Amino acid sequence: MINGLCQWKFWINCILSLNADPWKMFDFFWQSCNMARVMAADNNRDSLQEIYKDLRERIDLLLKEIRETLDIDDAYILSLDQDDRPNKEIAKALSMIGSLRKVNLKERMPESFGKLIEGIPVVGNIESFSPEEQKVLRECEVSFLGFMPLTKRESGYTECLVCTSRRKRDWGMEGLSLFMEYGIKVKRLIGQLKTIAQVERDQFLLDNTNDIILAYDNEGIVTYVSSAFERLTPFHASDLVGHSMFEFLRPEDHAKARERLRLLQLGVSMPHEYRIGERWYRFNCHPIIENGRLKETVSIMSDITELKETEHTIRESEEKYRVLAENIRDMVSVWNMDLKPVYINPAVQELLGYTPKDVIETFQDISPLEILAPRSAKVLMDVIDKRMSTDPGPGVPERQDPVELELVRKDGTTVWTETRFSFLRNELGERTGIVAVTRNIDKRLRVFTDPDFILEQARMFLYGNRFMIWTTGMDLIFTYVSPSVKNILEYSQKEYMGMEAGKTMDAVSLTRLSSAFEEGLLYARKKTVDWHTIVEAKYRTKTKRSRKAKIILSLIREGYGGKASGFLGISCFHL
Q1: For residue 74, with 0-12 CB atoms within 10 Å meaning exposed, 13-18 middle and 19 or more buried, which class applies?
Q2: CA 236/CA 249 separation, integer angstroms
Q3: With 392 labelled, which of 69, 141, 349, 367 sits at a CA distance of 20 to 30 A?
Q4: What domains are defined for the chain?
């Protein structure tokens, strides 16, 4: 068993130098698995704890033998941590005792400490030490002291065998030789003890990780699987070990698996994915080559079912958005931070006359501002600069106020558009691009800037049969009424302006309007207060017909905050 432990010590000690190299990790996991199996089977022992306990007992017996053979009061192992104090965990595991355990050697015995770090034994009676160290030894009631360095790391020796006696001793060459021999034996046992502890931790990692470690030969026959297999799958280890990997794969995956196995025999490794039962697994494989031939393959088998489902959901979402983006009438475009086009949907052809390919290719070499009218180009750059300077950062909703821009079509004509845009970000929250949605509002804008249209709307407003505009002085006598009064109430402008405001209303409507006027007169005295109200009324036409309306009533002031000079009313009649 001891030889088996020493054989694997190298692999365990290499764990600190793996640095997350995946191939070294494969080697380490695989050697750890084998080590655990060898040790568990050795001498019919099924627990590493038993081996660990046995080694501790051997160390205690060896220390007892040292005390008796060398005729000393105490023998123990001193382990120093980074603070040069005894490591409590190791001390407990090795059953260390001794009055020097609480001494900080680096501070209290610097000369001896320096020799120990360099691997030089320190042996002698109290007189052979410096005055400062003699003081420490007297405090500890030690007249003879022997330090034997045992294990070494890059920072220096970390454990040593300590022999102390209250009486002075003279070992001579024979005693020193025995001390050295015992040091070698203790060193071997400590190495085995640490190896067992490390292997136990590694086995715990292998059994409790969410990945499955398995191995199979050059024909695909499984030779080992970690216990995590039974915890993470509905199968038992015996269902897999000794069986071919192909028994667990879908028939449609056999050809791909054979090709992967052929590449592994050539020493070529690459991750591959298979569906086993209802779950998806990714296999990261590492071939073990001996004498130019594939001896065994070690794989880390990771469950990626949730990842596959997420990828499927993302693909479906991307497809839906792609169909949506390519069929909506708004132009959707994506630009990088250098304002070079990355994507543009087919709506660009209807809007500007370019194909998506034209835009992608053309504007790689020229500025996209060329597609904007000069005034709109400046507006866009100002908006982008402002948005970047006030960017709230990732996780905060962006304001997407629309920007009206005049774009130049391929034929040279222009079209007015409304664009909303937001920043694209990477996983670190950094801006990587701009996505813009552009809508054609040319007809809407041109309607409100066309003089003929404006005159037509004004004519309908003043002469139609829906709206009647009127004004009064503060004495409530009409001063103006729009020509539409003829079509609505059948009175001429002159006739209506000679009437009192409520003569063409019923009693209820007249009461409501009178209350509104009284309220308006109160607010008229407050120069800085605006006022308006809505009154429901029922009018009587000249021929005694009834027409319902809503009256929007407000004060007329002489300039902002000036003196009130009358009332403005807009009567909106129901059709």
Answers
A1: middle
A2: 16
A3: 367
A4: 2-207 (3.30.450.40), 209-307 (3.30.450.20), 328-446 (3.30.450.20), 453-573 (3.30.450.20)
pLDDT for 6:
36
The CA distance from 203 to 213, in Å, is: 11
pLDDT at 390 over 90: no
Q: Which two tokens stand for residue 399?
A: 């304001």
What pLDDT is recorded for position 13? 39
Mean residue pLDDT of the chain comes to: 78
The number of C-alpha atoms within 13 Å of 507 and in the hemisphere containing its C-beta is 0
User: Is the separation of the CB atoms in 10 and 192 below 8 Å?
Assistant: no
- Tens of pLDDT along 159-175? 788 888 889 988 888 88
Residues 94, 99, 104, 105, Cα dihedral to 10°: -90
CA distance 194 to 77: 14
pTM: 0.37
Beta-carbon contacts of 346 under 8 Å, excluding residues fewer than 6 positions away, are 326, 355, 356
Q: How far out from the chain centre does Cα 494 lie?
A: 76
Instruction: Yes or no: say if 421 and 434 are a contact pair by the CB < 8 Å rule.
Output: yes
**C-alpha–C-alpha distance, residues 346 and 111, integer Å:** 83
Beta partners for 557? 564
Give the Cα-Cα-Cα angle 551, 504, 516 (nearest 5 degrees).
40
Give the H or E element holding residue 432.
strand 431-440
**Amino acid type, 451:** P
pLDDT score of 551 more than 90: yes
The terminus-to-terminus CA distance of the chain in angstroms comes to 105
The residue type at 203: Q
The identity of residue 415, as a single letter, is V
- Between the alpha carbon of residue 103 and those of residues 14, 80, 388, 563, the distances in Å are 31, 11, 62, 96
CB 214 within 8 A of CB 221: no
Distance CA 355, CA 339 (A): 18
DSSP class per residue in 321-370: HHHHHHHSSSEEEEEETT--EEEE-THHHHHHS--HHHHHHHTTTS-GGG
Distance CA 365, CA 340 (A): 9
> What value does the mean pLDDT take over residues 110-122?
82
User: Is 540 buried (19+), middle (13-18) or exposed (0-12) by CB count in 10 A?
Assistant: middle
The Cα 112–Cα 164 span in angstroms is 14
Identify whether the C-beta of residue 281 lies closer than 8 Å to the C-beta of residue 299. no
Tell me the per-residue pLDDT of 456-513, one tens digit each, with 9 for 90 and over. Answer: 777 777 787 788 999 988 888 888 899 999 989 999 998 888 887 667 888 899 999 9
435 CA to centre of own chain? 22
pLDDT digits (tens, 9 = 90+) for 325-377: 666 788 888 888 888 888 888 889 989 998 988 888 888 877 778 888 888 88
Task: Write out the DSSP string of 242-263.
Answer: TSBGGGGS-GGGHHHHHHHHHH
Residue 572: pLDDT over 50: yes
